[in-house]
Amino acid sequence: MQSPSRTLLIGGSLSAVLTAPVLAAAPATMDVTITIPRLKVAEYHRPYVAIWVEKAGAPAKTVAVWYDYDMKKNEGTKWLRDVRQWWRASGRTMTFPANGITGATRAPGAQKISFSRAQLGATAPGNYVLVIEAAREVGGRELLRIPFTWPAKAGPGGRAAGKSELGAVTVAFR
Amino acid sequence: MKKQIWGFAATVALAAMAAVPASAHRQWMLPSSTVLSGDDVWVTVDAAVSNDLFYFEHQPLRLDAVHAWAPDGSEVAIENKATGRYRSTFDVHLTQKGTYRIASVADMLMGSYELNGKTERLPRGTTAANLAERLPAGATNVQTAEANNRNEIFVTVGEPTTTLFKPTGKGIEMVPVTHPNDLFAGEAATFQFLLDGKPAADLPVTVIPGGIRYRDQLGQIDLKTDAEGKVAVTWPEPGMYWMNVTTPQTARGEGGEGGPPPASAAPQRRAGYVTTLEVMAP
């Protein structure tokens, strides 16, 4: 009973080795492309965007927050709580500006950001979820989730599409 | 026949009047936000006594007994106080990270005394401290019972803290199992209630969502604390909720239900607790 499946497994791993000569260079970087929609509204402000990683049984790990970080007296932090799921999951325990995490708000269009495996807190193999949440002043809020596993395969690694405050979000590994 | 009808109507009216103070005219404080971020944060609070939640349409809440405490336990100023015809308003400057408490606490004495063969009630505003000066000379058979009312709200900058939840041991107090500034629609939250510092079983708990004016059903949730004084609430919707906990009210008066108790009746120990809770959208 067991031998055929065993043979298959061996065959599978063999072919994987043969077709993946760069096995030693397993993906170490996640590239995320977040499309911020261009909105026809009378009063437009770039959204606050938080990106974090969830893993069952572990605290959420914030990897990037785009907000008005350069206002006088750090006033831009007043609206961080409006990114409300992130605020609960992680933001409220942090201090701002957060080194390597704080970033400027970004304009409409495709915005790229990359994270190392260590930055993602994904050093342990397993299942993770990348969460992207956007909240806009005098606008709405939207949240997208993209599951991923580590070790990851090189190439496209997931996508999600928002309806209001976020456009397409794609993940790729290299 | 007519006489009987009038008698019945009078009884109903009396019952209604007696019921009013207990069931209507809800006291509340409504903060502008309960979950805050930033380094230089203010919260502004409306405070009123009204039937509908949260609309000012009856009386302002008097601010004399309102105080605020920072997460480190220090008292902070109530600023920009104003009392209008229907509501009071004030601000609190939140300079620390963590959970603040804003509370109006009243510890009173209810009861009666006898003077020249007549039973008289203790005047309003009697406390343990001023009882001696309020009693007229020659008063005998003094009977008192404590009445403690606590109306408090919580607001949090950054991560919720629990440093301010050490019970004083007086009246009804809340001990969070779920933090009152970490509430989300669809989730269950558990709170423990203490009466005079001890877990209090079978206290009636009333939860009413705000926005009463624009709906037909009150949406009141009636609960009771369990043997450990705990109660679990599942929030049906995001929004502001009014929560009221009281000591059970036994049937009043000797002359049947509804009538005011005779002045000679032994005064009942009473305690009440009110808070306003913000439930976030998931």
Give the overall shape of chain B: globular
- Report helical residue fraction of chain B: under 10%
Give Rg of chain A in angstroms.
Answer: 19 Å
Structural class by secondary-structure content of chain A: alpha+beta
The total beta strand count of chain A reads 9
Q: SSE order of chain B, as H and E?
A: HEEEEEEEEEEHEEEEEEEEE
- How far apart are the first and last residues' alpha carbons of chain A, in Å? 39 Å
Fraction of residues in helix of chain A: 10-25%
Assembly type of the chains comes to heterodimer
Strand content of chain A: 35-45%
| Mean pLDDT metric of chain B | 88
Number of strands of chain B: 19
Rg of chain B: 21 Å
Query: Could you say which structural class the secondary elements and strand pairing of chain B correspond to?
Result: mainly beta
* Regions with little confidence, pLDDT below 50 for 5+ residues of chain B: 1-23, 252-257
Largest interface: A-B, 15 and 17 residues
**N-to-C series of helices and strands of chain A:** HEEEHEEHEEEE
As laid out across the biggest beta sheet of chain A, the strand order is: 4-3-2-6-7
- Spatial shape of chain A: globular
